[in-house]
Amino acid sequence: MIESNHNPPLLHDYTQLLQGSRDSVETKQRINYEQEMEECDLPLVDLGGLWSMNEEESVSCASEICKASAEWGFFQIVNHGISLELLRRMRKVQVELFKTPFEQKMASGLLDNSYRWGNRTATCPKQLSWCEAFHVPLSKISDQTCYGEFSSLREVMQEYADAMQELAKSIARVLVMNMGGGRSLWEDNCNESTCFMRLNRYPSCPISPEVFGLVPHTDSDFLTILHQDEHVGGLQLMKDSKWVAVKPNPDALVVNIGDLFQAWSNDVYKSVEHKVTVNQEVERHSIAYFLCPSYESFIGCCDKEGSIYRRFTFGEYRRQIQEDVKDYGHKVGLPRFLVST
């Protein structure tokens, strides 16, 4: 297969990694396993209740959010306040952006040099992510100089980022209040100078499902809001010690808990391992918003007396992840910060 000029050279990288790789048996096992994948319906939360003047409805909605965060680590939301028109506009400009020739995406410095693809540290096929992305700091979205010839992106990206920021704070507020926490955890430490938005594209893959769109991982933030493809599935998560596929819901956004909320809640809320598969026939797009604190922010615990994690900063956490990926080829994450270790 010859990749078109807007695709990154993923097939070349996969071929190079496959040569001399010893994980061919594991790959075959994974293919058979994927074919038997169960589908699941994530908990569906109607956020209309959260905005309701009826206290009973508001309390019930908050309870659903917290229950899903504790039992699943993932849930879907409808009536979230973000217009379908804005979601469609954002998806349209996203698709157009990724049609830019690969060499131009690599060299243009677009969106604060945020373009990335594959996995440059991969040493075997199972570590390769078959995707390309723009991982953009929110602080740069309003900066006109980041867009170059793509200045038409700025207005819709700014509107989208602002809407996601407010939505994420509303959900975080519920989770913090449920554990008896104060506003400072997220209100003071999570803003446009610390949060990120990631535009993802998963090209069609001739060797699917031998590779991942995104390798299995947990998110390193407080929470993530995902606008996934309404028609092309691919998101899978670990539930009850097995992988399950998430059915796409065209009317819903997906929310998942990140490592920082799991640590802060003393494992009440769950940061669940998840991955993305690819499709042999069609490409897939998604947009993720990440609610993050500053690197200097300390991640404490709502239970001051019985925390199972030692106190650490977000910067310290990120540095440890980078070291582990370099040394072992994968993220270790929260187990590194248990009090007993």
UniProtKB/TrEMBL annotation:
The answer on whether this UniProt entry bears the keyword Oxidoreductase reads yes
- List the catalysed reactions: gibberellin A1 + 2-oxoglutarate + O2 = gibberellin A8 + succinate + CO2
Q: Where is the Fe2OG dioxygenase domain?
A: 193-293
Q: Which top-rank group of organisms is this from?
A: Eukaryota
* A single GO BP: gibberellin metabolic process
Please state the Enzyme Commission number of this protein: 1.14.11.13
**Which InterPro entries does this entry report, sorted A to Z?**
DIOX_N, IPNS-like_FE2OG_OXY, IPNS-like_sf, Iron_ascorbate_oxido_reductase, Oxoglu/Fe-dep_dioxygenase_dom
Q: Name one GO molecular function term.
A: metal ion binding
What positions belong to coiled-coil segments?
none
What keywords appear on the UniProt entry?
Answer: Dioxygenase, Iron, Metal-binding, Oxidoreductase
Give yes or no: UniProt keyword Oxidoreductase: yes
Family (UniProt): Belongs to the iron/ascorbate-dependent oxidoreductase family. GA2OX subfamily.
Which named protein is this? gibberellin 2beta-dioxygenase
